[in-house]
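Q: Structure tokens for this one, please.
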Amino acid sequence: MEATRSVRAVDFFGSRKEKTWATVPSVYFYDLYVNGKHVAELKAMPTSLKELAIGFLLTNGYIDDFHLLERVDVSADRIDVSADSEFDFRYQYWKERSVSPVDELKLTRLKNGYAIPREKIFEKIEQGFRRAVLYSEVGGTNFTLLTDDNGYFFIAEDVYLDSALYKAVGKAALVNFDMRRSFLFLSGILLPEFVVYAAVLGIPIVGAYHGVPSLSIDIAENVTGQTLFQWDGEKLRVFASSTRII
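A: Here is the predicted structure, written as tokens:
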């Protein structure tokens, strides 16, 4: 399946109209099964689907180590994961309590001393915008960047910003990337759930292009201890724990 498709459209230019073809992103639904149990329905573009599943399970707290996953098989409309028996134990506990993993998580305050030069943040984000081809060429897409101040650089694109996040996390997990010494950047808005997702993964610095709501800042200041920032192409504005950006 292709990440984009051509559809018929009509362009209006004042009083003139013109028939044309337009490129739009493709979206599909995937049922995620782990050890034969239906865990979630994921919505995503048909790219990096193995990484999507791994990132979803890590980010939502179903597992804390991707090595618990023994195999990931992708078909037309479902993703089947084989996992260590520890997954079954944790999943059954959540099902019995009738809560989702994120509701059950007890977030701990991040206290690591990781800091990154602001110039390195500028460099990495600008590189992300250059490499986000779909984001720049196809309307309706987002991208997520997970990187550090060294050579690691993971970027993923999707219509759904959370799916782009899962894909980037999955790519990073496959190479044992140290998320405790990294930063995450989103092309959209830094919603509160994204702050929580990053905290679950141990990511200390999280930023976004289109803004940071007050609840996200409250979570960072009062619960997780993360550094949040907005980069709008001209300036970097930091909220909470600004000492991590030097």
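A few notes: The longest helix spans residues 118-131. The CA atoms of residues 144 and 165 lie 6 Å apart.
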